[in-house]
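Input:
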Amino acid sequence: MLATVALALAACHNDNQASSAQWASTVLPAHDAPGFATIQRGLYLVRAGDCASCHTANNGAPFAGGHPVLTPFGIIYSTNITPDEDTGIGKWSETDLYRAMHTGLDRQKNHLYPAMPYVWYTKVTPDDVRAIKAYLDTLKPVRQVNRKPELPWPMSDRSVMGAWNKMYFNEGTFAPDARKSAAWNRGAYLVEGLGHCGACHTDPNFAGAPTGKPLHGGLLVGSFAPSLAGGLRDGLGGWTAPEIVEYLKSGSNDKTAAAGAMAEVIANSTQHLSDSDLADIATYLKDMPAPTSKSDKTDLAQNTRSLGAAVYVDNCAACHMDNGQGQPQVFPQLKGSSAVQAAKAETMIRVVLAGAGIPATTSKPTGLKMPAFNEKLDDDQIAAVVSYIRNAWGNHASFVSAGDVAKMRTNLRKKGSE
Amino acid sequence: MATKLPEVDVVLIGFGLTASILAQELTEAGLQVLALERGGFRDTVPDFSTTTIQDELRYAVRNGLFEEPERETLTFRNSMDQTALPMRHLGSFLPAAGVGGAAVHWNGQHWRFLPSDFTIRSHYEKRYGKNFIPENMTIQDWGVTYDDLEPYYDRFDYLNGVSGHAGNINGAIQPGGNPFEGPRKRGYPNPPLKRSAATVLFDKAAKENGFNPFPCPASNASQPYKNIYGVQMGACTYCGYCEWFGCGNYSKASPQTTILPVLLKKSSFSYRTQCEVTRINLDSTGKKATGVTYVDAQGREFVQPARIVISCAFAQHNVHMLLLSKIGQPYDPVANTGVVGRNYAYQITSSVDVFTNENLNPFMGAGALGQAIDEFNGDNFDHSALGFVGGGYIALWSTGGRPILQHYLPRDTPKRGAGWKKGMQENYLKACSIATHGSVMSYRDSYLDLDPTYRDVYGNPLLRMTFDYHKNEHDMSNFLTDKATLIAKAMKPRSYHAKPREGHYSIIPYQTTHNTGGTAMGDDPKTSVVNRYLQCWDVPNVFVVGSSVFPQNAGYNPTGTVGALAFWAADAIRNLYMKNPGPLVQA
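Output:
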């Protein structure tokens, strides 16, 4: 890997200069100061892009950055995107912002790390970026110096992104597919662009690049974002379009409820999207075919099944009920659940260890929480109950080991882990 | 030197049930509201998580969720010829500290008072003659009627997701419900809780005696429920850890499960915990409140100005607040003058333990899972030959079978050792108890005032409680115990024994947390502290909400009426007071 990077470093220096030359001539045309309608549209797009989830730290000033983003390589802290001139982006022009979102370069033409999802935001049109800038300009300027990322060499040298971009980044504005409907294209624009769903739901490679099958599930640090393709068992194959819309708008539907990172996405982003946009996202997602699935039927060892069943009765059945049917709209159903039967079990293990909170949205404000079982159950018990749940009541998915649980306990203790 | 803070529209003393209702309703009306709570913040997860809450030692024995007498207590005596002494341990009643108040650890037994309860004096005088009520029994009409409150009872029912079976819908008696209850405009929001083996036996035995048993109304949701504010509750799991515990299942109605998810998101609402209000401050005229003084956890004093002050502390704490703040004339029992502290009352209870042949699985329980009869409550029966005022319900509650405190043993069982273990083995699964829950009237010599000797950590005199049962209450309670015994016999048990309430009132054994009175509501400022809208006669921008406004106590748990009155007062503030600040009733 290091050899590749070294070669790429040599190459990218030249690339940078080429880019600079290119940028010298590409400046967004000037226009009148944006009106209220543009600013409102910018607010909507900032919500669609979920900027707040990264750029607003817990208990932090809005958009002032400082939120630790946990990557496989270390922690990157989000930056201050308030209009403060010294520590924020107060001096940035529309062109500067477009450069960042479209090409992954900051105002000084340094590379951004792809934790800032320019890989996806590249698709956003200049007009939409303009509206986003108009909204960001209205934010209260906050003086907060950006924290340096905590990354090992060579990742600590931003110029390695030049090579990374060459290999993994397809710069370019969204181009509609003429064979598809307007609704599909709007859905595609949102999912592949501002929504940056693939940043979690597409499996990353060793370099953190989304090279897996698009939206077929992604393993992150401490969780697994499930497949959004048409798999009946572990994807959205069994969901209707209205169920997808309800989930994104309210945080839950009859089938399941959001937890963890997705709860934040719904609370900060998708609950604010229009019904029409949510419907278009659903149209796009439902268009993905079911992958040819290999059966994951496993024959659990009898003792695991009975230990798991016993743990389930004692700890889970009160809310999730005897047959895993849950209490619709309150405590998620586990039987037949695509979240439970996701290809990888990381999220399920995490939920049992650390608990989970359904997002509090305008339409469902309660924000029901599941408690953490990390102190009550040991690794064997959690492995048994997760394996049981993934294979009970007609469910079928890979089972987990006590070692998997131990690994997640370690993950949860990492700095930056929520 | 106290720090003066920016003014708010409304300051609430306490952040329990009544404060949560008022905060939600008044912020909806556009007011900016601040709640000051002496305890800490608590939420379903993590504080009542199902992983940790079913800990009887921590919560039921060591009082994990209650107020601490080391910080806040009162002095107690039965009668005026005694010296009151500080209550150093909780016993008879269990007030809370912390956000959500006692509505976190209550059982959820949720009742409406009877129509006749609200006009008790005029009703008794009309039916039994003016001489029926003894001279020292200071009971009085409330100044509101059941009909006034019905829409607010309804609102509280639907806030809490009460599980029950209505007995009287718009005058039409419903089979299977309480035939004696006041008319309601619609049924309960949730069906009744599932029955326990014990309540099935009680139901049959009660019917054999010609009574009309019905499922007790429960603020434990029998199914998933979305309430009037869009807040969602889960279905009760019958875990048997209800009273004195928080619910980790989102099934017991409390501010956390019914109001706070929407209230806490409002920018017009804020709260401060570990801040104890010590005074309502008045201006130089003494007729207008300027706000409150409070002390935070570091002992720093603050003055919080407000346009409206609402005392939402627990019952007797409201009385204490008014006495310390010199609002209203303190009651003098000898001279029979004054009103603040007058008409303190409580509840009188008894039981009959029943040892059955059938296996009852008592560990399956819910706080308000019960079956009751109301034949002997209020004035549902003819008192002429009986010579007492009042009554109560008789119920078999299946609230749980917790290992340390919740079991019944025959009277002759040894208190320890092999004999005790044998008694437990033979009886744990096959025992239950029929409870009677009786009214307590108000008397000249049952009252609250300030103690002359003992002070709290802030140097303020403690509240002094002077209270005992009178012959009226004993006669009434014994009458109920006899009726309960009839039902016990009809359950055809192995054995039973009655446990009547005897002798003086003692604050040591737990009975109920149904303290009432001291800031009575009414039509006449000579016998009440607040008017029908719970507004202080003397200081019109001060309201008092809670069971301290009851002129006497009825034969039901108070919370249903406390909640209804909170909604009623909120409506009065929104629709009457805000339009025209000042006295809402001309005395």
